[in-house]
Design brief:
Strands 1, 2, 3, 4, 5, 6 and 7 form a 7-stranded antiparallel beta sheet that branches. The protein is built from 2 helices and 7 strands, in the order αβββαββββ. It is α+β, with helices and mostly antiparallel strands and 128 residues long. It starts with a helix and ends with a strand. It is globular, with a radius of gyration of 16 Å.
Length: 128
């Protein structure tokens, strides 16, 4: 088998896996009533967080996509950490450290901070 054919097969397999993961995430979310971030098709929001859709940005660069999003709510930082530690690996993300995940050449960082008695979570998706 030629090298280009092997590369093509690997790309098809990788894309198929990514599509299945996104489809599985959407099916899980529908069953659980979970929302997903705008611009990131398979990063769910834990119960208690609501995305501020006016605060986000998304664009593509030559190196990959960049997405910034903000969600706030009355939820403990520990609950956010535990939610993502449990759900993101199921969606193919690998935890590098708490609040930092990597998958397929991208990294997802969550910055968590108090905000007027609530919790603000800033999501930053970027190429590695």
């Amino acid at each position: 088998m030629s090298r280009s054919r092997r590369v093509r097969r690997l790309l098809i397999a990788a894309l198929s896996s990514a599509c299945l993961a996104a489809a599985g995430a959407r099916a899980w979310a529908a069953d659980e009533g979970v929302a997903f971030l705008t611009g990131v098709e398979d990063v769910p929001l834990p119960p208690g967080l609501v995305e501020d859709r006016t605060a986000g940005i998304a664009f593509d660069t030559a190196e990959g996509r960049i997405v910034q999003a903000l969600a706030t709510g009355e939820i403990a930082e520990r609950d956010v950490r535990d939610f993502y530690a449990a759900t993101l690996p199921e969606l193919g993300w690998v935890m590098v450290e708490p609040f930092l995940y990597r998958r397929g050449g991208e990294q997802l960082r969550l910055d968590v901070a108090p905000d007027n008695g609530r919790l603000a979570v800033r999501f930053s998706l970027s190429p590695q």
